[in-house]
Write a structure and sequence with these properties.
Elements: H1 7-11, H2 19-33, H3 42-58, H4 61-70, H5 91-98, H6 102-114, E1 121-127, H7 129-134, E2 136-147, E3 163-164, E4 173-178, E5 181-186, E6 195-196, E7 209-220, E8 229-232, E9 248-254, E10 260-263, E11 266-273, H8 275-280, E12 282-288, E13 291-297, E14 305-309, E15 325-331, H9 339-358, H10 364-376
Parallel strand pairs: 1-9, 11-15
Antiparallel strand pairs: 2-7, 3-6, 4-5, 8-9, 10-11, 12-13, 14-15
Helix pairs in contact: 2-3, 5-6
Amino acid sequence: MSTTKDYYELLEVARDADADTLKKAYRRLAMKFHPDKNPDNPEAEERFKEISAAYGVLSDPEKRAHYDRFGADAPMAGDPFAGAGGVRLDPNHLRDVFGDVFEELFGSFFARANIHHGRDIRVRLEVTLEEAGTGAEKEVVFQRPAKCEPCGGTGAKPGTQPVKCDACRGAGQVRIQTGFLQLVQPCPKCAGSGVFVPSPCGKCRGTGLSNEEARRRLKVPAGIDTGQRIRIEGEGEPGRQNGTAGDLFVEIAIKPHPLFTREGRDLVCEVPITFPQAALGAQVEVPTLEGKVKVKVPSGTRSGAVVRLKGKGIYDLRGVGRGDQLVKLVIETPKRVTPRERELLEELQAIADAEAGKGQAGHEERKGFLDKLREFFG
């Protein structure tokens, strides 16, 4: 059974709380449990991480909907911000809530917690509609920094090691007194890492990282749509000085299809038919994601009529069913006709005019229009 605390209870709000209520609740609790306001209090720091993770989910409409439906996922191992639900809080959430005082209140905390954590990488992957509709396995190629081989990621020249920073004594932060206010900020000498590299590696110049081309295979789940992302844990940039690696986020972009358009789980396809097929009825071939199928065109079909093919659409991303395919029948009007075709069409038009004038069945709309036309012009 999951031991993750309920996000709404953590923020002390109702489940239907709006964005403004969430922001006010988070601001109040973050000010109360911020680690700099509770030094040497691990319980307060853990509570701060939990409420930050909760706000990170509930302030995002898509993540909130997913949480309301499925609950929280398991925490991400090794992530300093993986409190409840394994969500790493984006500092931009805090900037949005606290405005100009963000750096004073939270800058030291984020510098202290994130200094060794590698950055996430975001790449774009194009897939076909068929691949998105039924699922596929794809390879993604991307550039990322990798651990420098000569120094093993330490940033120090081979044969040497980083040393404890003498400016902050390895703490990674320094305190500055400004009047009655005491501020904590990352150490300017070691950039908050707590260590200093006196002899940098010649290849990576002390960063501990060098660029590489990476290739990873991933499963594209059936039902995914443009703009949705797939997360691969630990495939982002490695952390400095052997810190925790970031994640790889693959954003999906579905290529335009020559025959289909997508409406949620449904596919829409326009199929041209001739006037005789629409008037007399026929069977026409229609494309689907799995191949061609025969569709019956009832006699008297009007242009724009839709035939629904059950279960021929896109699979649901949650694996609960499949959409339909909507076949829109469009009567094609020829731009050019042969002399014989013209002769037959003129004969057909003459018959239609005569039948409409007599009020024959099948011509009620045209007769009704002609009656209204005569009445309008007196």
